[in-house]
């Protein structure tokens, strides 16, 4: 297992987990989701190619109510 | 009568922009957006918690709207820029409302940080709609930085106090050649009409609609007020006089 942070919380995940797989297990609507890895945006085209590593910080965002 | 609202070269169908916060339910929010006739609808960007249904809000926004994410949560330019880039990566398109708010009590924007963020994001091709404290010099800086419009506050967010900043907004409308969209603090339709009468291009309202006893009906009321205020502005509002002037002739009395 590797230790990463997801939205600020520590999490152990399988080695080789891609951003794409992580997003899909977090949400059923990946089309309206944005991902930042260690502070930088990862565009959807790159999700399948981005493999998470020990110590990575991932943030997953989507739209919410607001004015 | 042709009176289109054009922002960044795009024709916007309604001068009433609406927010999606604070509604009692998704269904009420949807009906309110429909009743408002709004073309531009604001949303926020937030982290997705595990297990939460994401993208739900998008299902409850009626089709054919322009989604305008805000950078709420940002306290400075770098945070606003980050949120804007994330919003675009999440598929929101190029519209972005910049909110750079360091203070949680009054929620007043930091104009200097807003200007910095505007410059960066305008260069990256965003349609930048900056929410700011109505200062003429800052309005000009925002225009020079590439803002597509100006969004001066009427009063602090959520206070429903109305157009407290009317004199400063009026000056900005007169002096800066950009659509002025009064945003925040408008509490009733008459406030929105007032903003439109003095020449604002549009208004953005959230709390006053979402917090009303009947939000969809209030959205309709605001929509009518915005249209009315705009018509009045185009019709040419009469000046204030210090002395009375009779409406009926002062001769030929039956006495």
Describe the model.
The complex is a heterodimer of chains A (67) and B (255). With 67 residues, chain A is mainly beta. Chain A is 12% helix and 39% strand. In chain A, strands 2-1-5-3-4 form a five-stranded mixed β-sheet, with no helix packed on it. In chain A, β3 and β4 (40-42) form a beta hairpin. The longest helix of chain A is centred in the middle third of the chain and has 8 residues, at 19-26. Chain B has nine helices and ten strands. In chain B, the strands form four sheets. Chain B has a three-stranded parallel β-sheet. In chain B, strands 6-7-8 form a three-stranded parallel β-sheet. In chain B, α1 runs parallel beside α9, α4 (111-123) runs parallel beside α5 (136-145) and α7 runs parallel beside α9. The chains are: A mainly beta (67), B alpha/beta (255). The A-B interface holds A 6-8, 26-29, 31-36, 39, 41-44, 59-67 and B 19-23, 29, 42-50, 52-58, 67, 69-70, 72, 82, 85-92, 157, 204, 206-207, 210. β5 (57-64) of chain A pairs antiparallel with β4 of chain B.
> How would you write the strand order of the largest sheet of chain A?
2-1-5-3-4
- Helix content estimate of chain A: 10-25%
Radius of gyration from the alpha-carbon trace of chain A, in angstroms: 12 Å
Strand content of chain A: 35-45%
Number of helices of chain A: 1
Distance from N terminus to C terminus of chain A (CA atoms, Å) equals 41 Å
Largest interface: A-B, 27 and 40 residues
Main sheet makeup of chain B: 3 strands, parallel
Low-pLDDT stretches of chain A:
none
**DSSP, total strands of chain A:** 5
**Individual helix count of chain B:** 9
Structural class of chain B: alpha/beta
Name the average pLDDT of chain A.
Answer: 91
Q: Enumerate the strands of the largest sheet of chain B in spatial order, edge to edge or round the barrel.
A: 3-10-9
Strand content of chain B: 15-25%
How does the overall form of chain B come out from the CA principal axes?
A: globular
Output the radius of gyration of chain B.
19 Å
Helix content bin of chain B:
25-40%
